[in-house]
Amino acid sequence: MNALILLIYNAVLNGAPLMYGTMGEVLTEKSGNLNLGVEGMMYMGGAIGLGAAFYYEKMAGAAASGPVAVVLAILFAFAAGAFGALIYSWITISLRANQNVTGLALSIFGTGVGQFIGEYMRVQEGGFVAISNGLKTFFQNSPFPASVRGIPVLGQLLFSYNIFVYIAIIIALLMARFLNKSRAGLHLRAVGESPATADAAGIDISKYKYLATVIGGGISAIGGMVYIMTIAGCVWNHDGLAGEGWLAVALVIFCLWKPVGAVFGAVLFGALMIMYVRVQIPMVPDQLYKILPYIVTVLVLIAVSLRRKRENEPPASLGLSYFREDR
Amino acid sequence: MGSAHAIEFRNISKYFGRKVANENISFSMDGGMILSLLGENGSGKTTLMNMLAGIYYPDEGEILINGSPVQIRSPKDAFSYNIGMVHQHFKLVDLFTAAENIALGEHGKLDRAAISARIREISGRYGFIIDPDKKVYEMSVSEKQTVEIVKVLYRGADVLILDEPTAVLTPQEIGHLFTVLRAMKADGKSIIIITHKLNEVMEISDEVAVLNHGRFIGKVRTCDTNPQKLTEMMVGHKVALEIRRPLPVDPRPRIVIDDLTVRNHEGVNKAHHISFTAYSGEILGIAGIAGSGQKELLEAIAGLQVITSGSIKYLPEGKKPMELVGKSPMQIRDAGISLAFVPEDRLGMGLVGSMGMSGNMLLRTWKRGKGLFVDEKISRDLAEKIRNELDVSTPDVMYPVRRLSGGNVQKVLVGREIASAPSVLLSAYAVRGLDINTSYTIYNLMTEQKEKGVAVLYVGEDLDVLLELCDRIVVLCDGHVSGIVDARTTDKNEIGLLMTSIGGQPKNGETTSAEGGKEKADA
Description:
The structure holds 2 protein chains of 2 kinds.
Chain A: H1 2-30, H2 38-60, H3 66-94, H4 99-124, H5 133-140, H6 146-149, H7 154-159, H8 163-181, H9 183-193, H10 195-200, H11 205-231, H12 244-254, H13 259-278, H14 286-290, H15 292-307
Chain B: E1 7-16, E2 19-29, E3 34-39, H1 45-52, E4 60-65, E5 68-70, H2 75-80, E6 83-86, H3 98-102, H4 112-126, H5 141-154, E7 159-163, H6 171-186, E8 190-195, H7 198-204, E9 207-212, E10 215-221, H8 227-235, E11 253-263, E12 269-279, E13 283-287, H9 294-301, E14 306-314, E15 322-323, H10 329-334, E16 337-341, H11 357-365, H12 376-389, H13 406-419, E17 424-428, H14 436-451, E18 455-459, H15 463-469, E19 472-477, E20 480-486, H16 492-500, H17 517-522
Parallel strand pairs in B: 3-8, 3-9, 6-7, 7-8, 13-18, 13-19, 16-17, 17-18
Antiparallel strand pairs in B: 1-2, 1-4, 4-5, 9-10, 11-12, 11-14, 14-15, 19-20
Helix pairs in contact in B: 11-12, 12-13, 13-14
């Protein structure tokens, strides 16, 4: 029982960065833009988010407030990802370049920028960039009081996570509501399904694509910051994000372009990623565990394509540029 | 409307790269009328209307609405002038419901109940049949069209533009559409119909404007003209509106189909126990409501479908009979069976849009060259030959076929299939969306093939043409052979009945589960 709760707890913790990465990409792909630059945007979000918290603490000194540091980290990470996505949007939406190539370029660019900034900070600060332990608790501990966390089973299962898990769930619920219930969400889905139709209906295609991609990129990048500040322990290390962004791209398919599904999918992937620590089987090497998320993605793809339900398919114009006068 | 015209075009020109789509077009129409915009394929009708609907922007000239010049830079602008267009290729989001599609682009809170109520109000007023909560991908073609028209009306359009609205409808559905259009006209709406079907022009419109090669030829009142005069305006010279139909000479069985059942890619049987024989030197028509198994049947013969049971015997002249079931498409093609299928989007099957005519010929001729490399000269020569013989309008044979007008694309496709000198020619929707002149060119091509002793299978949509062109007609109903009739003695009514019920006998509880069945019953 305890082992199971511990597995779930760790799965959620490890899944949290993926929740952001995936939800951001869901929003992006709903507009018909396939942004493969998630890894790059998460890298930038990770390095810049950490930098924001670190330099804030350095400037404010002992007076540094935890909540302010968290908010700053979120805002700077978001801005970093949004900036990456803005470059991508300009190239693919305004200049109508190939989305795959642009996305891959953004991945490489963002990884480079993230590594550069992270390493630069590390060297500048004498080989070690980390925030103080006092501040760390605001990033890594549960926002709920001890009395709530102390409830047997439920306390650990529901109320013991860091603040970012709860923010992710709130974003997921809001995004689901936005996509399915609001006028703007309907328009965004129309843009991703059939831009010519949306255009004929008087919807500003470029506006929707830009906004969805930039906001989506920002949300994805928060995931990078969450990874650095929670899993990586608020420290910049050479490994960076170790492919989280690519997992997020796979998760988008896995969760069938549904934000709430992204949360559950991220938890499942989180579990698969830490299985090698929690559920060890003798003679089975770690590497086999680590390919599990990809195997599951392939299996889900097969299952979904066998069911052939229209609602589960990717946005119909995903990956295509739109030009009104094209024939 | 006062003295000003509802809509006026002044010296409108539009170019696509090297191609002239519209040149110096000026005419006007008054409100509360039905105007037909008539012209050959590629004559610029759709381009002109797209400029009114805000899809394209004119390179030169101006558009006046109620007497004042306007700038229509986007579909949104067009809505603000109460202009709405129903495009030939429907602009609908398949995944959305009818209501969601109709309300797309509006602002304010999304109140589904209010939207549905307004849709019901509009459909009640003009006599549409529509279910606001049905998803578009579950709809038949005519239902989709209804959604498109209601969408435009919902937006408060006073001017409706319909691009080839009847191309995909059955005779009964067309009748219903016309009733609705008349109701809208009575309500004071102005309607522009882009078409090339003369009988419909005569039936529905008050005025006809004619375009030819991107130029405006003239506007006449429908009651002052007749089909022959209109054709001459449209084509620029006299055209005989008759299809030659010589009697089949020495017909011999060429394809014998016995108890054939075909399953489509989704695992659903689309053709059930089909048996018939196609003879050499005859055109065998295949009629049926869209989606009754015509496509699957032809593809089965060409080797592209999974055949559940039954046999297809091919009896080539002077050679041994051959069983086609189990043969690969390449083997069947080499045996002399050609498939010219024109899908709804024209480019979906058979042609590669971004390649030129020459490149598309290469898809068939690549094996003919000697040595290791592809001989491009063979394909280029063939492309030039087809271009000259069928009068394909293209700047050059390397020009991407995607940029050609629909009629020219079809000429390329049919021309290529005929060029391989087949002994069986399978053609589906060869004249889909084509104008009279090109259609007759294609009909005559079919007849020429027939005279050469080819067995021609012709899947068509226009019953009038099937009756004039074919020798015999196989009527399909929901994947079954509903009847085989002599085209010289039958009539439209008999075929229409066979199309909707097996054997032409309406049965109790028997539903015409094929697409469009519901509309027919209501029409």
